[in-house]
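Render this sequence as a predicted structure.
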Amino acid sequence: MIDPLHQFMISPLIQLSLAGYDISFTNSSLFMVLATLSSILLMIAATRSPQLIPGRMQFIGESVHRFVGQMIRENIGEEGMPYLPYVMSLFLFILMGNCLGMIPYGFTFTSHIIVTFTLAMIVFVGVTILGFVKHGTHFLRLFCPEGTPLYIIPLLVPVEIMSYFTRPVSLSVRLFANMMAGHAMLKIFAGFVIILAGTNLFPVAALPFVVNLAVVGFEFLVAFLQAYVFTVLTCIYLNDAIHLH
């Protein structure tokens, strides 16, 4: 039997406990560390010896910086540029996590709702604190814009509050669901190849094999798109906190 969900199982690599709580270093922890180190090493390699005519690594680093910077300018404006380090770190961490999961025997930690929800809550709490720091209680105007007719307020305010507090849910579920579904589909088609290869229908195994190759390419595209979507929504939420739009 080929279980497409077995790849998402968290396994302890180093057993640890603290005050009765299991804090073991797991395969998920390992790939989070690898994603972080990959992001750091990429930027170190890109900025180690900057040249007027950039080399390959410098070009990649500058492209990522320019891409995220443009994303911030389009969604927030120049006022959002102080948050470039955080937004860029978030983008690289998710992108590296998604791509590392495509390596054979790799682990996709972004396919776990607890990871994506934690990332989404960090964004949600940070944006909320930023809004109150910048605007004080006037930040509550986000739920009731100025000029709203009085008869609409009893309907509008609960809807806006509900919409605001569901942000971390929609942000986390979108990333988790796409990564989990894509990797499960890869495992299913790979299972078809293995099963058919062991029968008299061996030539037929070429069809799911070709499909699987196409899905692998598509999953790399999804890995980038999901990192982009998570980051651009973060920029939109930052824009709300900064401009109260």
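Summary. The longest strand covers residues 12-14. The radius of gyration is 22 Å.
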